[in-house]
Amino acid sequence: MPCSRLVKNQNKASMALAESKPNLSHLQVSELVKRLFDLTPSQIHPLPSYDDQNFHLVVSEDKEYVLKVMNSEDSQNPTLLELQTHAMTFLHERGLPAQTVLPTTSGQVMSLEDIDCGFGMQKYVVRLLTYLPGTTITKVPCSPQILYEAGKMAAKMDTVLQEMEHPQLHVLQREKFIWSLSNIPLLEPYLHLMDGDPVQQVVKSVIQLYKTCVQPKLGSFRKCINHGDFNDHNILVQPDDSTAYKISGILDFGDMSSGYYVFELAITIMYMMIENPTSLDVARDVLAGWESVIPLNEAERDALYLLVLCRFCQSLVVARHTVVQHPENKDYLMITTKTGIRHLCRLWELGKEVVEKRWFQNAAQDSGLQAQEV
After folding, report:
1. Low-confidence ranges of the chain (pLDDT < 70)
2. Active-site residue (options: 52, 74, 229, 255)
């Protein structure tokens, strides 16, 4: 598993009890799917998930689904889960490649089930979603073309989500959600976990700059609903022709929250950088794709460099907290954070002016080339 996703999954796990993750057997899955959806899967394949339990179900040659069994902690917030499901359907209906839900035989988009997974009876929210074709973007060559497409899709996604109406939209105001770029100061109580590590001072400096240079300017950013986790494992792609790829799927809306357009761009850039050997040029291509849909305003452009650094800091700091909660994973987890530390320190050492010059000048050139090709 690539380090960016592993770190994110490990970090999320520290916020929940180990017993909250479901652990259904294949027999339990078969019985559940038959009872709730009147389907009999011929094949059941586990899918990766740290907090929840996901299965790829094959019912027939032309019928494939994903069964999602949410952890018992998140299952206590069905309103948020229903809103995430609504967002996926909203995007799908407007032509974006998001999953849709298959209702239960009683017409529900999700069902709260009492299941014994070895910890006694607990309540788990169960949903059945369409299975999207494609492979994760990590498994294809990381070309300027696919990075451009990732930036463009992220911008289109947030533009469409901003049109969404729902009576419970207020639940997306997640004021204590540590993964929101609105909440960078929430990292401060965990900084002591980095004592003795030289990167601690970089993280402290980034947080201070956020408080002095970004927070006062939030009012100048354009608001939207963020997917919040547009990373290399949540983007599916398919070949478009012999040399290009198209995005065929957007997955995992669990980090969705109210935010700002520039937040989504910063998150996308960070995750596209983490696995790329020419990481500094990644932002150029992602930015060019983004600005083909939503050109940044002056305040957003000025904050982008710092917001990318903030996303790296979120990943690194919460990872240290995870090590405390799960010391058995320390060696593996700390190895996987080295890439993030290297990117953060390099961006910090180069400085805002140098990095922005590389990003914005080259993004303008990329946009020109894309326009010529069209």
Report:
1. 1-19, 50, 326, 328-329, 332-336, 362-374
2. 229
CA angle 358, 359, 364 (to 5 degrees): 105
What is the per-residue pLDDT across 9-66, written as a single tens digit (0 to 9) for each?
444 444 444 567 899 999 999 999 999 999 999 999 998 776 789 999 999 878 999 9
- Long-range (24+ apart) CB contacts under 8 A made by 95-100 are 96/153, 96/156, 96/157, 96/160, 96/250, 97/132, 97/236, 97/247, 97/248, 97/249, 97/250, 98/249, 98/250, 99/66, 99/129, 99/130, 99/131, 99/132, 99/249, 99/251, 100/129, 100/130
pTM here?
0.89
Whether 229 sits among the annotated catalytic residues: the reply is: yes
CB 308 within 8 A of CB 266: yes
Which token pair is 258? 């109210």
CA 182 and chain centroid, separation:
16
Of 59, 243, 15, which is closest to residue 149 (Cα–Cα)? Answer: 243
